[in-house]
């Protein structure tokens, strides 16, 4: 059992960040630690307790390189399409760290893709029931990793090339990807809560 950081539940929830520049690309990540975190993630809720999730853990350097190439291509298009106005300091930091991750994704020790059984085509209309059976588990994985001194960054840009990545990894047609988490130990563990909109701007009681 890995040693856990001394974080109470509120600290864990409020200091689990998307980590990019502070991912330690040099320190190996034992598969046993990833398995521990995934065992925690499997306790997350899923619709009708279906547990239709699948977790593709990628450690092979060549596979990581190919997934990273798809991610970098998608990020390049995404960044080019965004307006280049006078961003605030927070957005500038996000842009810089996002570019860094796109440049170094192949060097991250472990990539984890969260996917889910669909039984065929994606459902029409609101798909909350489907993705709501995967994403809580993926977030629980992020929390469990943070508790063990590892970081991750919630990413979905590779999904522009979901079919190519599925073919690369041999995923069946009935399984769809929902999130990609680059995983590494972090350089330091002193993460803090991030600025957020005030609660009263987004809180609605008994109606809008």
UniProtKB/TrEMBL annotation:
<dbReference type="Pfam" id="PF00881">
    <property type="entry name" value="Nitroreductase"/>
</dbReference>
<dbReference type="InterPro" id="IPR000415">
    <property type="entry name" value="Nitroreductase-like"/>
</dbReference>
<keyword id="KW-0560">Oxidoreductase</keyword>
<protein>
    <submittedName>
        <fullName>Putative oxidoreductase</fullName>
    </submittedName>
</protein>
<dbReference type="InterPro" id="IPR029479">
    <property type="entry name" value="Nitroreductase"/>
</dbReference>
<comment type="similarity">
    <text>Belongs to the nitroreductase family.</text>
</comment>
<feature type="domain" description="Nitroreductase">
    <location>
        <begin position="15"/>
        <end position="184"/>
    </location>
</feature>
<dbReference type="GO" id="GO:0016491">
    <property type="term" value="F:oxidoreductase activity"/>
</dbReference>
């Amino acid at each position: 059992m890995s040693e856990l950081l001394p974080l109470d539940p509120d600290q864990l929830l409020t200091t689990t960040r998307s980590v990019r520049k502070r991912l330690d690309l040099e320190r190996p990540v034992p598969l046993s630690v990833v398995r521990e975190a995934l065992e925690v993630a499997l306790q997350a809720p899923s619709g009708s307790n279906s547990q239709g999730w699948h977790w593709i853990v990628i450690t092979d350097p060549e596979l990581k390189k190919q997934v990273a190439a798809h991610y970098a291509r998608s990020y390049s298009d995404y960044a080019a399409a965004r307006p280049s106005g006078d961003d605030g300091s927070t957005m500038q930091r996000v842009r810089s760290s996002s570019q860094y991750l796109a440049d170094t994704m192949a060097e991250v020790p472990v990539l984890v893709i969260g996917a889910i059984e669909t039984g065929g085509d994606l459902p029409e209309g609101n798909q909350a029931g489907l993705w709501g059976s995967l994403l809580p588990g993926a977030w629980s994985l992020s929390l469990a990793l943070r508790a063990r001194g590892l970081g991750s960054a919630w990413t979905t840009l590779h999904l522009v090339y979901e079919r190519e990545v599925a073919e690369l990894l041999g995923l069946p047609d009935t399984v769809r990807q929902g999130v990609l988490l680059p995983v590494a130990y972090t350089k330091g563990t002193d993460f803090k809560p991030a600025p957020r909109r005030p609660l009263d701007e987004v809180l609605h009681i008994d109606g809008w």
